[in-house]
Every structure is written in structure tokens, then in C-alpha cells.
Amino acid sequence: MKKKPLTDDQYIKNPNVCPSCHGHDVTGGQIKIDVQTTQEVTCDTCGATWIDVYQLKGYMELKEKEFTENDWRTEVYNGDTRLGYDEWVEHKKEMHNDMIQNAQKEHRGLRE
Ligand SMILES: [Zn+2]
Q1: How many Å apart are CA 52 and CA 109, to the nearest integer?
Q2: From ligand 1's centre to the CA of 24, what distance in Å?
Q3: What is the whole-number distance in angstroms between the Cα of residue 47 and the centre of ligand 1?
Q4: What distance in angstroms lies between residue 7's CA and the mean position of ligand 1's atoms?
Q5: Of 67, 72, 73, 111, whose Cβ has the fewest other Cβ atoms within 10 Å?
């Protein structure tokens, strides 16, 4: 007897089976990234084919720039700098390092 195809909910809970025959022998094809991310899948048991649909879930490992172009624009606007963006970032990093080094020196001074 033919099994009823899985519903989306059932499939999401158990995505490594064939939605038609419920067999585990499935092969994923190329992943296509467009408006939607999809992957063609083939069941090696019954020959059924289908397309998995992926959904954006969120993001991870956010790395923020320490000195952004917006910060730079603000300083240029306020007349605080005449440097180009790249030079300004270098300058800011140097100032930041000096600050850390001075703080470390002070720290060492306190211990001596
Ligand atoms: Zn199958």
C-alpha cells in the first residue's frame, strides 16, 4: 500500500527521509541560492524527486567594525579630521594602541 506523502511539518522534523516512501536513502543535489535557497533531492529507493526549501533562520558571528565610515563622516563633517577614510582608520587604531599601552604602563607603574 502506498504511504501518504509527509506534510511539511513531518518533513522538517525528519528531513533525511523520502517524503514519499519514507526511505532513508536520499541524495541531495546542487543547492541553488536565489530569492529562496533550494536543493533538489532524489530518493534512491523509490525514485521520487523533490525540492527542499531552506529559510533564513538568523545570523551568527557578527563582527562589527570598530571605526565605521559613519564615524569618519561625522568627524569630517565636524571638521575634526581631514584624513581620508583608510588613513583615518589607521590613525584611530594607532591612537587606540597608544591608549592601551599607556594604560598598561600605568598598570605596571602601580605594581612597582
Ligand atoms: Zn522514496
Answers
A1: 63
A2: 8
A3: 6
A4: 14
A5: 111
Task: Determine the Cα–Cα distance for residues 37 and 56; give it in Å rounded to an integer.
Answer: 9
In this structure, are strands 37-43 and 49-54 parallel, antiparallel, or unpaired?
antiparallel
CA of 17 to the centre of ligand 1 (A): 8
Whole-model pTM above 0.70?
A: no
22-74 pLDDT, tens digit each: 999 999 999 999 888 999 999 999 999 999 999 888 999 988 888 899 999 99
Burial (Cβ within 10 Å: 0-12, 13-18, ≥19) of residue 19? buried
Q: How far apart are CA 75 and CA 82, in angstroms?
A: 9
Instruction: List C-alpha distances in Å: 104 to 61, 93, 110, 112.
Output: 29, 16, 10, 12
